[in-house]
Amino acid sequence: MLSELRIKNFAIIESLDFSFQSGMNVLTGETGAGKSIIIQAVNLILGDRASTGLVRSGEKEASVEAVFCLAGEMRIRESLDALGMDADDELLIRRVISQEGKNRVYINGTLSTIGMLSGITENLISISSQHEHQTLLRPDHHLYFLDSYGKLDGEREKYQEAYRGWKKLKKKLDGMREAEKNHEERLDLLTFQLDEIESASIEPHEDEHLKEERSILINAEKLAGGAAHGDDVIYASENALITQLSKVIARTRDCAAIDSQLLGTVETLENILFQMEDAALSLRDYGSNITVDPVRLDVVEERLLYLEKILKKYGPTTDDVITSAKRIEAELESIKDSGATTDEIEEKLGERWTHSAELARRLSSKRKEAAATLSKKMKKELEELGMKETHFDIRFSSLLAEGGQNDEILCENGLEEIEFYLSTNPGEEPKPLARIASGGELSRIMLALKGCILGESKMPTLIFDEVDSGIGGGTAEVVGRKIKNVSKGAHVICITHLPQIAALGDAHYKVSKNIKAGRTFTNIERLDAGQRVEEVARMLGGIDITEKTKEHAWEMLEKNA
């Protein structure tokens, strides 16, 4: 059971530290006092996602601690043992949320993960809220209630895993079959494309080399003339640069014989002369290799035009064309092999469908067994909640699914859809629950369902968060007594706005809110006998509480003592 709860700097709560008692604990207080925040804190302990928005304004971090008594709770002890943690008589869970977004989880003082936490707390607490009632108005949720009652969640998930595997493979096979319809045309196209690329015999960067060659061919006369002119100026003419430089070298050498400082200059000039001779020779050789060749120019132009067409289709570069050829070859091989692959997948698909159908049939059979016992138990539970003439029925119907074989249809959740039917008047045919149930009836039906489901699960702590929505008067007392009865076999925490339910608690806590220095603070205190009279009277009479109202409150408490 949840024995202690400590909350610090969480939303509008600065600091709360309180203990719960065994049996039925009731929490009351004005709307907005902070009761829902306490439930938020408990949800955090159960593994809910943390948000920096939960940290109290102006504080660096928030923390929530919960202490659980594990006496007799073998499932929890086994979970702790599996994680390598000490399984003592107490379990301490702590969540810390920082403004920087760093969230930490501690289990018995050991830093842990949300996954580890969820694996432990799923067997610790069950929370029922007024919002949960709305799921009864959605027929697609009814199946999950039935599976929870029959402990079939694991089998449903196992089936769903098999079904989704079959569905994924079927989608792949359908895609391959659709592709096969276009294979012949595709093969023709790919074969043509590959032939076209291979016929082109393209070399890497061939277009760049040809463009350079074309430029040389177009400007052949200019290039040859330029080379000849350079050779003439440097070497061949009467006043060539080499001739003039040779004279300069001779004069400088004579001077160097007189002044050795010029020896380095002579050496430099001689090096320049050698370089000029090499340059003249290079120009002469280059010019001799340049020829005006209109035939070769036509060949180059024609090849470039052809390459331009190929590059436009498969490029834009020669590397891209070569890559395209490899891709086309691979696709051709894939298409040729697809016939054999399709046959293999079709065989696997049949095997997966057979396995999924077997799991679905087994699940369906167990659901029908569970539905029969749940219907009987619901009738009894609803009678205890003042709905004596109510007939509760669970109906199965097949769905039009996305695929099937052998006249058997598989759906996401098995072979059928499930919907709850209800008749509240004798002689009336049961109708879909979502169409006929009132708000007060929904509260009692959900409580009855929870009673059946949780009765099977032996959950140690049950939290009822304003499940009395939409009811009052005698019905409220009936619902309260049902919750009270549940508390005989489990630890119960009940948040309520109804005095009929509050008066039934074994321990009564009041949540209040006050403002100091412009800041909001939430407080919780356990009420003594006198304070309980005042609080129940407030719930009965509103703002102006008379002595008569207090007497009524005292009578209610005495009656339930």
Architecture blueprint of SSEs:
Layout: E1 2-10, E2 13-19, E3 24-28, H1 35-45, E4 61-69, H2 74-82, E5 90-98, E6 103-107, E7 110-112, H3 114-121, E8 125-129, H4 142-149, H5 153-181, H6 183-200, H7 206-218, H8 220-236, H9 241-258, H10 263-289, H11 294-314, H12 318-384, E9 391-397, E10 404-405, E11 408-409, E12 417-423, E13 431-432, H13 433-436, H14 439-457, E14 461-465, H15 473-486, E15 491-495, H16 499-502, E16 507-516, E17 519-526, H17 529-541, H18 547-559
Parallel strand pairs: 3-15, 3-16, 8-14, 14-15
Antiparallel strand pairs: 1-2, 1-4, 4-5, 5-6, 6-7, 9-12, 10-11, 12-13, 16-17
Molecular structure report:
The chain has helices at 35-45, 74-82, 114-121, 142-149, 153-181, 183-200, 206-218, 220-236, 241-258, 263-289, 294-314, 318-384, 433-436, 439-457, 473-486, 499-502, 529-541, 547-559, and strands spanning 2-10, 13-19, 24-28, 61-69, 90-98, 103-107, 110-112, 125-129, 391-397, 404-405, 408-409, 417-423, 431-432, 461-465, 491-495, 507-516, 519-526. The strands form four sheets. It has a six-stranded antiparallel β-sheet. A six-stranded mixed β-sheet has the order 8-14-15-3-16-17, with helices on both faces. The protein has a three-stranded antiparallel β-sheet with strand order 9-12-13. It has a domain at 1-124 and 459-526: 3-Layer(aba) Sandwich (Rossmann fold), CATH 3.40.50. With 561 residues, it is of the alpha+beta class.
